Amino acid sequence: MIIGYARVSSQDQNLDRQMNMLTEYGCEKIVEEKFTGTIKERSGLNQLFEVIRKGDTVIVESISRLGRKTLDILNIIQQFDETEIKFVSLKENMDTGTSTGKAMFQMMCVIAELERNLIAERVKEGLDASKRRGKKLGRPKIDKDKINIALRMYDSKEYSIKEIIDATGISQGSLYRAINARKYKAVKRA
Predict the structure, then answer these.
(1) Which end of the chain, N or C, is more open, meaning fewer C-beta atoms within 10 Å of its C-beta?
(2) Which fold has domain 2-109?
(3) Catalytic annotation, residues
(4) Where are the domains of the chain?
């Protein structure tokens, strides 16, 4: 079966152009969606995965209809490939059912992997440089006395969370982490 997927980012945008192209191509079914491509979990995309079967072909007007991020798009196309679904993008003239289309997809995967590795290297280099300059990484250590005072104030039930964090100078998140850690220790002992 030839299944089309059409997507625009917002409700006020129009799907007509994509729908016309997909119909002209010969799509037997078209899944349409008006939702941003920056989010991976989309109901239309989920519906597409529910409909497709081994041997089907998914058609899009442009590869960008699958998503905004290269890695997300490649993961979707890879899912198609793993379930033996052909993928065709009309604008980019990409067809994973052909040798050239598969090669193009594999090159895109290599470039995406390179991009992931370069980002990881830059992050590591940045962290190493910060360490060499003497910068401490991670959460700053919190004075245990301040935590103990905050917990006693909390236990007294006489102070609001805001009053506790204002009085002790610790963050709300630190206070809740300390409360939860204490609960966890109590449960573990029991």
Answers:
(1) C
(2) Rossmann fold (3.40.50)
(3) 9
(4) 2-109, 144-189
